[in-house]
Amino acid sequence: MIDAENIVYSIGGQRILANVYATFKPGEVTAILGPNGAGKSTLLKCLTGALKPDEGRVLLAGKDLKHFSLTELSRKRAVLSQANPISFPFTAHEIVVMGRNPYSLEKTTASNAEIADEALNLVDARHLRDRSYPTLSGGEQQRVQFARVLSQIWEQEGACLFLDEPTSALDLRHQHQLMDLVQKLAAEKKLTVIIVMHDLNLAYHCTDRCFFIREGWIRGGGTSKDLITADTIAEIFDLPMKYAAMRFGMDLAG
Ligand SMILES: Nc1ncnc2c1ncn2[C@@H]1O[C@H](COP(=O)(O)OP(=O)(O)OP(=O)(O)O)[C@@H](O)[C@H]1O
């Protein structure tokens, strides 16, 4: 469970997040949606502890993030950022094993390597195991990075998974595979999953709840099926109604 309480965040005097309140529940996949530059990644970084809000606080399972040590945090939440540039020729498997760093003292190298292999399997990337990471395609790299964050919280029931545009480089089949996997893991391991995404159809069909963010304010928190409507899309994205209804299909047109 993650609670954002009255988060305020500014950059260079510009207010990016204004009095944001939001609750993200275990066992659920929640989307954060909104236009470019709205503050979605900034909010995600505040929720993970990567950015410290100017005001307000973030609670993880009821405890203020600032009271967790980095080691504790690394076992309770994993973060997939929008960009993960790596130029050193690590293999895909070595990248995924890096997710196991928080357990390097207590788990054997062999068991960490095995978990990394299982994570690669889950994301349909086992065949890339020994490839040099910088030579992989964008979508292949994205799947390997996803395997890395999965391996980080592999044995952690009730952990949090933060994903910033995890499907941006994926083809249609892998987009659905990733979202199916995320839903399954959220339900089975009671993960709190928070995903920044732009694909509203995917959000409609594959997330439980959503928040919309725009110009610093946030609203939502209800079910994605209730909230992602042509009316809302037209308003949040400044899109003429006919495009909102047309682009997102009959089931979103209401
Ligand atoms: N370090 C920074 N310095 C200056 N401005 C920044 C910085 N980081 C973010 N911003 C600005 O803050 C605003 C919010 O950025 P953020 O990355 O949170 O948007 P976003 O909703 O995730 O956008 P996108 O959908 O394009 O990824 C943007 O206008 C961005 O230019």
From TrEMBL:
Top-level taxon: Bacteria
Ranges of residues in domain ABC transporter:
2-240
One example of the protein's molecular function in GO is:
ATP binding
Do you know which InterPro entries this protein is assigned to?
AAA+_ATPase, ABC_transporter-like_ATP-bd, ABC_transporter-like_CS, P-loop_NTPase
Q: Which keywords has UniProt assigned to this entry?
A: ATP-binding, Nucleotide-binding, Translocase, Transport
Pfam families xrefs:
ABC_tran
Q: What does this protein do?
A: Part of the ABC transporter complex HmuTUV involved in hemin import. Responsible for energy coupling to the transport system.
Q: What is this protein called?
A: Heme ABC transporter ATP-binding protein
**What is the phylogenetic placement of the source species in the record?**
Bacteria, Pseudomonadati, Pseudomonadota, Alphaproteobacteria, Sneathiellales
